[in-house]
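Hi support team,

I'm filing this because I wasn't sure whether my run with magnesium ion finished correctly. The job status page said complete, but I'd like someone to confirm that the output block is well-formed before I use it downstream. Pasting the exact inputs I used:
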Amino acid sequence: MGLLVHFDIAALAILLIVLLTSIYRKMYKDMSSVVFLSMVGTTLLAAVFECAQIIMYAAGCRNDVAFMIVKSLYVLSHDFAAVMYFLYVISLAQTWHKMRQYPICSMLMCIPYLVNIVCVVVNVFNGWMFTFENGIETVHSNWIHYLGAGVYILVSIYYVIDNKELFKKHQMLALASMLPLTIASFIVRQFYPHSLVAIFANALGILIMSTVIQRPELFIDTLSQQKKYSFYADNMKKAFMNKNHVTMILVNISSYNSIYHILGYDETTQLLRRIGNYIEGINRRLNAYANVYYLDRGRFRVVINGFNTDKVRKYAFEVNELLKEKLYSKNIEVSLNAVICVARLPEDLHDFNSLISFGNDFHEKVPRTGDVVYAEELFTQREFSLVNEMDDILDRALQNESFKVYYQPIYSVAKQRFTSAEALLRLIDDVHGFVPPDLFITAAERNGTIHKIGSIVLEEVCRFIASDEFERLGLEYIEINLSVAQCMQSTLADDILAMLEKYNVSVSQINLEITETAANYDMSAMSENLRKLSEAGISFSLDDFGTGYSNIERVASLPLKIVKLDRTFVNNQDNPHMSVFLENFIRMFKQMEMEIVVEGIETEQMVKRFSDLHCDYIQGYYFSKPIPQRDFVEFISNNNSKAV
Ligand code: C2E
Ligand code: MG
Ligand code: MG
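And here is everything the job wrote out:
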């Protein structure tokens, strides 16, 4: 017969190596790898059929029906590999959903292969493409066979160029290599009809794709053996770009840091692998075809195409139950404290950046019920959406100057009148209305706007103190809250002193409140500020005493004039030990010659109790809530005139 089998044998060797190394490198876990392996498999079949034809002849077989079957199978499998190539391109671009969105285009893409099947079947009866006589093949027309494969390759390359934002450069080059290889094999066949190079050309293309695209280091995290962060980022960006609907199960292991600290690198790695395997087990059991990713710091993501609510609920429930169980490592019982959240993209999280910032710390913001959390339910909770949009809210407030300083009067027990007040910041957002200070102050500390906000408060208070109105009220000073981030800014002391000078406000007219927790931070950065301010004559209060975890030595080293007993501390009536603590703390601070303010006093009975305990000042809703400047002036004018 004179056909050269060498190219097919070389192709077989290449394809087998690609197949086995892909399996060895576990490159079969995601959709594009599965399609890639299917392409390798069909090309391998085509090579086997072509070799079989030659071997049958060499072995003396002259059964033309058998030759006809083997050759027809070769043509069908060879062209099917081209179909798989097209599908591989689609899965790399992650645009499967577009096949469902545009059914007519999808059907059109089936036509070349269907025509091919019809031609092969018709050929069996009329032999218009190829015939056999005593095992010797006569080719009448093979253009249809090349045309079918060519259409898929050309459409695929057009698709890559048209959607180039969905492909990396190396992917585009490797995919495009199939075109010159196919053209070259076609030309060779025209000049040397006995050289069977078509499959060999395909095998070379596959080898290029395998080495350039199907690289596990681009997909797999060596630590957890799951798909890695960069692959997750690529895929999620594509999903948002393609408006692909996916459901994500976000798993954040809250105790990751402590686990790593206790178990060390090797054991933590083993633990993460086990968790990854458990999740994959659920994946298989539920036939969910989900992609499992490991990001970092104990964060897994399970991504499922579409919104199959029942399946997702079951999946998330199983993951949650599994991670609630105690795991053992080095005979140490490990509690993961995992929080599991289900989010629909792009419905709940509209873009990649929101996904990343939500995923970073949702476990710290959600209530710990032990149940799976649903993002859609979270986002309907006001506080959660506030937290999520806090950066925008702060920007808006700074731009529209919508921060307002309110004042809460502070009553002096000895003088029986209001002698000072605390300045408390209020933010009424155009969209969300009242935003609690605890939320926006924390966010402002995180994003750095606290410094701007701090100087707005200081300026507003100085302007008020400098006014004639304030002088008439006869108040001694205003307390201003300083957050930890402010205390650590190197220019704080100079900025405050400059502001006082600008408004001609005396250092005795303000008092700075620092929180008890501030005493636990690195003192070196803030001690210089506190020293400068204290030397300039400014006094400090220790705010929220009784809520933090005090480092007594540090508290003692702060230049404090006043201690403010926190509302939660003074209101804790249930525990008899607390009132012993309270009474003794008050005595202790008195001995240290500090003044004491009790916060959060709401009843007359409490006013009496703390007056009897010799607290110096009382602050709370019993007298007044924090109120705007105008109301505050009226309040003090009315109440202090009565008191005098
Ligand atoms: P804080 O400095 O301990 O302020 C006292 C908080 O207790 C205020 O909450 C006040 O409204 C509330 N309060 C006072 N008396 C009562 C009472 O009788 N009952 C109850 N239930 N609450 C009472 P607010 O205004 O929500 O402020 C919360 C925290 O936000 C403040 O705690 C302070 O740490 C921070 N903050 C407020 N304004 C500023 C500011 O201008 N700068 C900084 N850095 N932090 C501020
Ligand atoms: Mg305060
Ligand atoms: Mg306080």
